[in-house]
Design a protein that fits this description.
By secondary structure, the protein is mainly α. The chain has eight helices and two strands.
Length: about 170
């Protein structure tokens, strides 16, 4: 069962997953987020508007450093992946996601199992990528992954392959 595999990949037992899920709901209530899919997004302090565009890691020079020329933005695949996650918790199969994986969209799409919907597959691949390439940064993406697993759980009735017991 994909759901159980994803929960186990995150290092949870079914019981601890429920506790963590309850904690995520508690945090969303404390933050004033009212949604069945809690999301924390960056907001501009002055206007209260959501920050738009891809997340980039920038090196900002300190007073001790000599700044020669403009500071260049560095693309961070983890930040790119996080910025591509939808508010519901899923990822869409597109070129930007394939780029994070170092593949073309065509290469990723042709590997999609016939009985699995593209959004489910994209979300499973994103979780696998996080666990395979960014375990050292798990503290940064743990709730992103938890949200994705919750989204996959909610797909069970919509996709027969997720409802099977293996």
């Amino acid at each position: 069962m994909i759901e159980l595999c994803c929960i186990k990949m995150l290092g949870y037992s079914a019981e601890s997953f429920s506790v963590t899920q309850a904690r995520a709901v508690e945090l969303s209530v404390q933050a004033g987020v009212s949604s069945s899919h809690p999301a924390f997004i960056a907001v501009l302090k002055g206007s209260g508007e959501a920050v738009k565009g891809p997340l980039l890691r920038r090196r900002v020079p300190t007073a001790e450093e000599d700044s020669v020329g403009p500071v260049e933005a560095v693309k961070d695949p983890l930040l790119q992946l996080i910025s591509l996650q939808k508010a519901s918790g899923c990822w869409e199969m597109d070129g930007a996601l394939a780029e994070v994986f170092g593949k073309t969209e065509e290469e990723v799409v042709k590997q999609t199992p016939a009985q699995v919907e593209k959004g489910v597959w994209a979300t499973v691949l994103a979780l696998i990528w996080l666990h395979g390439f960014k375990m050292d940064a798990q503290v940064e993406w743990r709730f992103v992954a938890l949200k994705a697993v919750m989204w996959i759980r909610n797909q069970k009735g919509k996709h027969p392959i997720l409802s099977r017991n293996h």
